[in-house]
Structure formats: C-alpha cells, structure tokens
Design goal:
Blueprint: H1 2-14, H2 28-32, H3 40-51, E1 54-56, E2 64-67, H4 70-77, H5 93-96, H6 105-115, H7 121-142, E3 152-153, H8 154-170, H9 184-201, H10 203-206, H11 208-214, H12 216-254, H13 260-264, H14 269-274, E4 277-278, E5 281-282, H15 285-298, H16 301-315, H17 318-332, H18 342-347, H19 349-361, E6 368-371, E7 376-378, E8 381-383, E9 388-391, H20 393-396, H21 440-457, E10 458-461, E11 469-472, E12 474-477, E13 482-487
Parallel strand pairs: 2-9
Antiparallel strand pairs: 1-2, 3-13, 4-5, 6-9, 7-8, 10-13, 11-12
Helix pairs in contact: 7-8, 7-21, 8-16, 9-12, 11-12, 12-15, 16-19, 16-21, 17-19
The structure holds protoporphyrin IX containing FE.
Length: 490
C-alpha cells in the first residue's frame, strides 16, 4: 500500500494521469470489463485520447505506466538503466530459458556481445539462397489457389515458409514445414506459439501456478510440446558440435584450412555460437539451446506477420504494387525462376520503403515492456523501482505529430529524400537502443526476398475481409490477412 501511495504521489508530481483506481484492484475493473484481446489496441487508443500519451495504469498490486510518447520512449530505450523486461515476458521462459530476449544484467550483456557477430554481413549473405529457395516453394504451393477469386489468408502460408527459413538458417536443418506441416517439431512450435499467445491474454493462464490449477490438461500439453522442442534442438546441437569437432580434427591432421563447416557447407547461426566463447570458455549446449530457441521464436512469428501485412497492403494499393513490381523487374529481370542475390536485395529501394511503411502501420511487435529495477528519472519524470512500463509503439507510429496523415499507407515517407524526417523513437518497429532487435537485418533480407518472390509470380488482389489487427503476443488479425492471387504474365 505504501509503495502504491508513493507511486501515486510521484505520478501526480510528474503530471501523469490515468483511469480511477479501486482498492486492491487498481484500474483493473476499467481495463478488463467488456474488454478482450480484440479490443486491447482500441482500449489503448481510448486511454490516450482521454489521458494523453503518458498514462498511469495500475493493475491489481502491480503499478504500471504506459506510454506512446516518442520522447518518453527515447528516454527509456536509450538508457542502460532500463534494460530489464517486465514480468509479462516471464511466461516465455519455459521455452526460451534466459536467452537473449529474456535475460538481463551481466548475462544479457555478455551474450549480446557474443551473438552480435553471428549476424555479420558475411553470414547473412549465405542465407539469401535459403530465403530464395523457401519463398520459391511458398509461391509454387500457391498456384493451386491463384485463380483470381479464391480468398487466401496469408498468415498460415507465410508462417510455414518463415519456419522453414528460421530452422535452416539458425540450426542448419531442413524441417520442410511447407511440405510436411505435420512434422512433430513444426507442430510443437505452432502449438506452443499459439498457447503462449493465449496465455499472454488470459490472466488465469499467465502464471504457471494458476495455469496448473485451472487448466491442468493444457498445462501438461504445453510442457510436453516444450519438451519435444527442447529434445529436438538438443539433438541438433550435439550433432553439429560433433561435426564441427570432427572437421577441426581433420583440419589439424591435414593442416588444411578447408573444412566442412567453415567453407564448403553453409554456416548456421548455431555453428557460429558453437565456435564462440565467453572469457575463453565455450558456450555449453544448454547456453546455445536458449539462444537457438530464442531465434526460432523471435524469428518466425514476427516475420510472418510482417510479410503477410506487407502483401495485404500491396494488394489493396494496386498503383504502389505496380511500382514495386516494376522495380523488381528492373533489378532482377523478367525470368521468374532466377534466384535473387544479396546485391539485388540491396537495390530494391522502393520495396524497402514499402516494407518499412508496412512495419509502421502494422508493427509485428506492437508494444515493448520493461520493469524498473531502481528509481529512475525518464524524460524529466521520476519513476519508482518496480514500475512496469509498456511502450505502445503501435500507437507512437500512428502519432500525427510525427506522421502526417498517419492512417495513410505512404511508402514515400521512407524515400531517401524524406526519411531524414523520421524520428527513430516515434518509429521503432525493431525497438532501438542497446536492446534493439539483433535480427533486424536478417529480417529485412528475408522480407524483401519473400515479398519480391510473391510479386514476381503473382498479381496481388484485394479480396476477402479487411484486417482487424489484434495484439496476441505479436500483431495478428482477427479476420485473417487476406488477399487473392492471379499468376503474372510478362
Ligand atoms: C519483422 C521481423 C522482426 C521484428 C518486427 C522484430 C522486432 C523486435 C523487437 C521490437 C525487439 C525488442 C523486444 C523487446 O525489447 O521486448 C526484438 C528483439 C529481438 N529480436 Fe527481433 N524482430 C524481428 C525479427 C527477428 C529475427 C528474424 C530474429 C532472429 C533471427 C530476431 C531476434 C531477436 C532477438 C534475439 C531479440 C532480443 C535482443 C536483445 O534483447 O538483446 N528478431 N525484435
């Protein structure tokens, strides 16, 4: 009670307002009654309209602060003092351990240092072939439904392609999710991702203790699938470690630099981690598993959402679609089967603007959380330790103060002439500062590869229900992310 009163006093001193609070419940009755996952983004819009961009929001015993204010977001994201995630993220721990996304303090700092070189240009360059091959399979599989009439929800289609891509690049294994969606590991990743999204929204499922009591069967199912995924990653890691060791032994006995892992075969992110060490100590299989599982999680639903929304927006803006298509033909040529190269991807400048603008309107990660570990001053306001912070990037990216005509899909905002006007904290789909997304270059290359492949094969048509964005761990759509397809003739 005392800390709550202290927080209220500090918020009042900082001029931060919020909905009325009730004893023990805080503002929960106002934020929960008649609200659901589907209304969450809308509820935040209503709160911003009523109380401004900085809002005090206490839920039960947890005091919280939500913000859509770019200056406040800047202050939080750029500080080394505010790198701890809030407890909403804890539910992911049973799968991801304390890998890069969830860790904090020294552990995070050290891991970030080791993992950063993993995403080096030279490593990403060899992934372009994987992006190209897997998106070719995605396009090939869609011809059946490309009759100009059938409504296609792109989310599940893009999800399987994204899973194939992330498994092959992070672990070096082809799981063939697109050919065999029932493969056990693929099933487990999909089931657990969906269950996590459900847990995120359902207070009774959010904590292991309450989920065990109220949803015992679901809890058991969740743990079985997590175990299945861990067993799979463990097996891949130990096999890759053996292969690496064998090739290093061969190398030392023949004295040659040629080795299986380093030159002939494509390096997976996992191989780079196997060769890394902290203070001279190699990473253990468990350390590596946390990181590989984190890549598998962070690296598939996010890109799925982005690819689907970008294709949707292009379907609904035919003139912009034509412009993006012309650029692709100018850069790659008219041969649909020609593989795309890293160089081509660098030249697809307009497509990059299209993707960036899609990430503005529909950011796959629409909010970012933090918890304060000590009293901190942020943008001139004093906040007490333990405050749970949520940065509403979805709303900040639609703030008319930073984006004129914010609801309009206008890729020109990101053209080389205008992009200097973009405020990097009002626009932060990959977050910003020390804890920004380590996979953002990877993601951009993957998105450009898949979207360009789709445009080379198909004309995208505005069919099906419009999207209704919902926050469900990542940004999805209640109605699906729909479009129609017609094979391109050129
Ligand atoms: C369009 C696709 C993507 C988007 C929009 C995105 C967005 C983000 C955001 C907003 C964060 C910060 C999260 C937070 O602070 O809570 C983040 C962190 C992270 N992302 Fe991404 N991401 C994408 C793709 C990827 C990919 C493909 C990978 C890996 C291959 C990846 C790996 C990570 C990791 C490991 C972190 C944690 C970094 C740290 O805390 O140091 N992401 N991402």
């Amino acid at each position: 009670y005392l800390t709550m009163r202290r927080q209220n006093n500090m918020m009042a001193a900082a001029g931060v307002k919020g909905p009325p609070q009730f004893p023990l419940l805080g503002s929960a009755p106002i934020c929960m009654m008649g609200e659901s996952a589907e209304t969450m983004l809308d509820l935040e819009t209503r709160l911003i309209e009523k109380y401004g961009k900085n809002i005090q929001l206490t839920m039960f015993h947890e005091y919280g602060f939500i913000t859509a204010d770019a200056r406040m977001i800047e202050s939080i994201l750029s500080s080394q003092q505010t790198i701890t995630k809030n407890n909403l993220y804890n539910l992911l721990q049973c799968w991801l351990g304390t890998g890069l996304l969830l860790s904090t303090g020294k552990k995070w700092f050290r891991r970030r240092k080791i993992i950063t070189p993993t995403f080096h240009f030279k490593i990403l360059e060899q992934f372009v072939e994987v992006f190209d091959q897997q998106s070719a399979i995605m396009a090939e599989n869609l011809y059946d439904r490309a009759d100009g009439k059938t409504v296609i929800n792109m989310f599940p289609v893009a999800c399987l392609a994204a899973l194939d891509i992330i498994a092959e690049t992070s672990m070096g294994v082809k799981i063939n999710a697109q050919g065999e969606p029932n493969f056990p590991y693929v099933q487990s990743v999909k089931i657990v991702s969906n269950m996590m999204a459900e847990r995120f929204m359902n207070p009774l499922q959010r904590f292991d203790s309450t989920m065990r009591i109220f949803f015992p069967l679901l809890f058991r199912k969740l743990n079985q699938h997590i175990k299945a995924m861990h067993d799979f990653t463990d097996k891949v890691i130990s096999e890759r470690r053996d292969t690496l060791q064998k090739s290093l032994n061969e190398q030392s006995s023949t004295g040659t630099e040629e080795n299986d892992v380093g030159s002939k075969r494509r390096m997976a992110l996992l191989d780079v981690l196997l060769q890394s060490s902290v203070d001279g100590q190699p990473l253990s299989n468990n350390d590596i598993r946390e990181e590989v599982d984190t890549f598998m999680f962070e690296g598939h639903d996010t890109t799925t959402s982005a690819i689907s929304y970008t294709l949707y927006l292009l379907a609904r803006h035919p003139e912009l679609q034509t412009r993006a298509f012309r650029e692709i033909v100018d850069v790659i040529g008219a041969d649909k089967s020609k593989p795309i190269t890293m160089r081509d991807l660098g030249e697809l400048k307009y497509l990059e603007c299209v993707i960036k603008e899609s990430l503005r309107l529909y950011p796959p990660v629409p909010m970012i959380g933090r918890q304060l570990t000590e009293d901190v001053t942020l943008d001139g306001k004093r906040f007490p330790a333990l405050t749970n912070i949520i940065m509403l990037t979805y709303h900040a990216q639609r703030d008319p103060e930073y984006f004129p005509d914010p609801e309009k899909f206008n890729p020109e905002r990101f053209s080389s002439e205008s992009s200097s006007n973009i405020d990097v904290f009002a626009y932060a789909p990959f977050s910003a500062g020390p804890r920004n997304c380590i996979g953002q270059k990877f993601a951009m290359l993957e998105m450009k590869s898949t979207v360009s492949k789709m445009l080379r094969h198909f004309e995208l048509l505005p069919l099906g229900e419009p999207v209704q964005p919902i926050m469900n761990l990542i940004l999805r759509s209640k109605t699906g992310i729909n479009l129609g397809l017609k094979p391109r003739v050129y």
